[in-house]
Structure formats: C-alpha cells, structure tokens
Design goal:
By secondary structure, this protein is an alpha/beta fold. The protein has 5 helices and 7 strands. It has 2 domains: 88 residues, 2-Layer Sandwich (GMP Synthetase, Chain A, domain 3); 61 residues, no CATH class. It is elongated and about 95 Å long. This is Phenylacetate-CoA oxygenase subunit PaaJ. InterPro entries: Fe-S_Maturation_MIP18 (IPR052339), FSCA_dom_sf (IPR034904), MIP18-like (IPR002744), PaaD-like (IPR011883), Zn_ribbon_PaaD (IPR056572).
Length: 203
C-alpha cells in the first residue's frame, strides 16, 4: 500500500531569509517607504500656511530691513488645484522693484515645495503707509529711518508735520529735501544731534 506524504508548506521569503542569515536577519534594513504626498485635502491648511510663510520671507529690495509682509505689499496667498497664487500691491504705481519682488516670491515659494507659483499684482485698493506693521515701523527706526507718522502733527506746534529723529528721539527736526535715497523717502536733519536721516513719507 502506498502512503501519501503531505508536502510541507513553502517557507515565506522572511523565513527563508532568517534561515540563511540567522541573527543578522533582524539587522537587514527595512524597505524604503513611499513618501507621503503633502497635497491631499486634509493638508490644505498646512500647505497654505507654508506658502504664506515662504512668501513672507521676501524682503523689499529698497528696504531690506523689511519683509514684504511687514511693508504691507503682500496682500494674499491662496492655493487652487495645487497652484499657489500670491497677490501683491506696489507701494506706488510703476515701482521698478516689483519685478524683483515677483521673482523673489516665486523663488521662495518654489523652494518651499510648490512647483507652480503665480504672482498677481493689484493696484486696488492703493497701498498706504497704514499697512506697515507695528513691527515694521520699529525695524525702520532701528535701521535709522523715521517711520511714517501720518499727516497729523505729533509735537506741541500744530503748524506742520513733526518727524521724530530715529537717533536721539528729538522732534526738533527739519526737512532738507523732499526726496531722499528713494522716491518714498524724504531727507531730514536733526537740530538736536545734528544727524541726517531718511523719513518714510506717509501717504
């Protein structure tokens, strides 16, 4: 009589590897995991924050002490179907530095992991110095530029605009030239400390 012998189950690949390598099998590197796509629906908020943070790092070419976010030039950031659209408003129509800003914004957002970036320029509403952040005003003063004070005098004499010296904080200042190092600034001098300085004109 012929007796049938049951065939032993075929070992799995992991069992075969362990039989060959013995104690070294546990040290074998794990297979690489596929990178997670960071643009699913549940990541939209995180991606938007990342895109805006990247755009906010771009500095104004004429005022490198300020980011375009502190200056108020950066107006909006949105993501539609994976395309990042950054909206900016120039400090004045025809500003020659806008091409530089647009180029730097594209580079910064692409470096943050976004392949397609568009920069949109809008002139409405027109930019105003009111859009400069409080932190931006402090940085201007630390850089030696008097921040815009508005059209209302801040000194005891109500006959005109009094600009505070960023060096000694005195209000005893005078305008030397209505145009300073750039079109948006005026050149002032302080009678108290004798130092000249730029004033960021309010408008």
């Amino acid at each position: 009589m012929v007796t049938s012998t049951a065939r032993a189950p075929r070992p799995t690949r992991a069992e075969a590897l362990e039989a060959v390598l013995g104690p070294w099998a546990a040290r074998a590197p794990a297979p690489p995991q596929q990178e997670r796509n960071e643009t699913p629906q549940d990541q939209t908020g995180t991606a938007l924050e990342r895109a805006r943070a990247a755009a906010s790092t771009v500095c104004d070419p004429e005022l490198p002490v300020l980011s375009i976010a502190d200056l108020g030039v950066l107006r909006a950031v949105r993501i539609d179907d994976g395309v990042v659209t950054v909206t900016v408003t120039p400090t004045y129509s025809g500003c020659p530095m806008m091409q530089v800003i647009e180029r730097d914004v594209r580079a910064a957002v692409r470096a943050a992991g976004f392949a397609e970036v568009r920069v949109r320029t809008t002139l409405t509403p027109a930019w105003t110095t009111d859009w400069i952040s409080d932190d931006g005003r402090r940085r201007l003063e630390q850089f030696g530029i008097a921040p815009p004070t508005g059209t209302r005098p801040v000194g005891p004499i109500q006959g005109g605009l009094h600009v505070r010296c960023p060096h000694c904080r005195s209000l005893n200042t005078r305008e030397i030239s209505h145009f300073g190092s750039t079109a948006c600034k005026a050149l002032y001098a302080c009678r108290a400390c004798g130092e000249p300085f730029d004033y960021f004109k309010a408008h």
